[in-house]
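Lab notebook, bench 4. Continuing the backlog of folding jobs that were queued last week. Each job is logged with the same field layout so the records can be merged later without manual cleanup. Today's entry covers Oxidoreductase, a 238-residue chain. Filled in by technician R.K.

JOB TYPE: sequence-to-structure
TARGET: Oxidoreductase
LENGTH: 238
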Amino acid sequence: MTWRPAELVAAAAETASARTLRFRVPGWPGHLAGQHVDVRLTAEDGYTAQRSYSMAAPADGDLVELTVETVTDGEVSPYLVEELRVGDQVELRGPVGGWFVWRPESTAPVLLVGGGSGIVPLMSMIRARRQAGSRAPFRLLYSLRDPDRRYYADELRRPDPGLDVTYLYTRSAPEHVSRPARRIMLDDLAEGGWPASFEPDCYVCGPTGFVEAAADLLLALGHAPERIRTERFGPTGG
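JOB STATUS: finished
OUTPUT FIELD FOLLOWS
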């Protein structure tokens, strides 16, 4: 893999601390939903910093879309979220990863379980399904602290046949939601997910603690280990 120049061509806020960035990357080889990319910044004095980010949308020519959340005291994310402007350039390298991916030719039911910014690669899968006209049924369980932290809120609100979306709030839930604010529980996956007998492909992404808890719950419900694919977000310096 080689580093490629990437020009920011569009940007939009997702939340108060997260931003979706669309780059044009000449010569981009394409990617699968669920893969990620390395981003490198170079300062005027030659100092470089790089971080990995999941891609938020399926392949679309030479366009690559990321959603980045600011990490307090980080080196890369604050610049990408707060300072990068249309026309500015960074460097990208990828795509990276071949296990945590969804392919449009798959017809198995899919269960997506995202915690916080772990929604990003799962959204790429949702968009890839729509782009391909796939009839594979998808269910998304999206765990987040409160409604103000929802990524892709308008898009996920629109009807999408074959996609069911359930929000699981952990700190503050809207008044009309009957489920109390709490961490993900066994009954959340039992009620909002697929029965293990359906043999769904399960994708779990988020912070390490969330991923471990969700994967254990899926195993407790009888899901086959080989059908549970996980991606963890750990401390990277931002």
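OBSERVATION: The chain is about 20% helix and 35% strand.
SIGNED: R.K.
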